[in-house]
Amino acid sequence: MQSPFDTIVKLCFKHTRLSPSVLFNLSQALYIVALGLRTTHLIDYHLTPNQAKQLLQHLRKHKDGRDLILLQFTDRYTFIGHRKRLLERCHSSVKEICYIDVQGKIPFKLDKVPDDLQEFLEEQLQPYVEQLEKTSIITNDKDDEKVFMVSNLPCFMVALTGWLLEYPMVYVCHQVGDIFDEWEPRVNCLGNIPLVWVKLQIQEKQLMSTRQQPYSLLSFTYPTCILPTAKEQQQVVDHLRNIFSARLSSYCSSMRLIIHQEIVTLDRVAL
Fold first, then answer.
1. Residue 82: other Cβ atoms inside 10 A
2. Rounded to 5 degrees, what are φ and ψ at 261?
């Protein structure tokens, strides 16, 4: 799968020392979002808001990038998202997402969405995306309207990141009303406990017999104590397989979905 964004990514990141392989992977990740296979991609490399806007403008000039939008949280978090997929995510059932509190001695499943996260999604993000849909229908297609800016980092940024990246298991490591300090490590209880690590990849069907490396689609973990049985863990895999297989069939039928699942234990987990 050849990304048409290679030249754009090289141009917008020429000020960095990122290696060609890193730029290649970023280009692929952005193209996967543009195709509608994923909802958003978090750019792990620092961009100022202006640099992020320039990246979006270049991407949207390409015929495959017209549905892309920018979600910018101060100058720290940059997400490139797919407008229609994000709207679907906003309208999805709360039951499809498991929120896991990892602040205490052991992780546990919350019985509802954190209040502040739900308020942000319902009162800020969802109305913004719905308005985008309306303006797109009437062909009002200004690039500056495709930028969602948040001037202060919310205390629920870890949970919001998991939500935006379409994880079915979202970690929560804040208390409602907390002040977010981006430089203060978020203490969690995920170290030295068994975690289920789920990785979704895609690969071109015609190259299955070659050594071509699959493209990363999604990767997340969750504690085994949340879903302790093999049957419960398989249900997560089956749910993801249904979602992403349908997207591949609709938008990229030349690719096949690969899902790996394993149990890992790490000394510490950074969130």
1. 23
2. -140, 130
Task: Output the DSSP codes for 17-75.
Answer: ---HHHHHHHHHHHHHHHTTSSSEEEE-S---HHHHHHHHHHHHHSGGGTTEEEEEETT
Q: Does any domain span residue 242? A: yes
Question: 218 in a domain, yes or no?
Answer: yes
**pLDDT tens across the length of the chain (271 residues):** 788 999 999 999 988 889 999 999 999 999 999 999 999 999 988 889 999 999 999 999 999 999 999 999 988 899 999 999 999 999 886 667 999 999 989 999 999 999 999 999 999 999 999 998 887 754 555 566 789 999 988 989 999 999 999 999 999 998 777 766 666 667 899 999 999 999 999 988 876 556 678 899 999 999 999 999 999 999 999 999 999 999 999 988 889 999 999 999 999 998 8
**Token digits for 62?**
């390409």
Which range of residues forms the domain containing residue 214?
195-264
Q: Quickly tell me which residue has 């720290």 as its tokens.
A: 76
The C-alpha atoms of residue 34 and residue 96 are separated, in whole angstroms, by 23
CB of 83 within 8 A of CB of 69? yes
Instruction: Return the beta strands (E) in the chain as ranges.
Output: 40-43, 68-73, 77-82, 98-101, 108-109, 147-150, 169-172, 195-204, 215-223, 255-264
Host H or E run for residue 238: helix 230-251
Tally of structural domains, the chain: 1
End-to-end CA distance of the chain: 31
Is residue 205 domain-resident?
Answer: yes
Q: Angle at Cα 21 formed by Cα 80 and Cα 6, nearest 5°?
A: 50
Report yes or no on 178 lying in a domain.
no
User: CA 199, CA 184: separation in Å to the nearest integer?
Assistant: 28
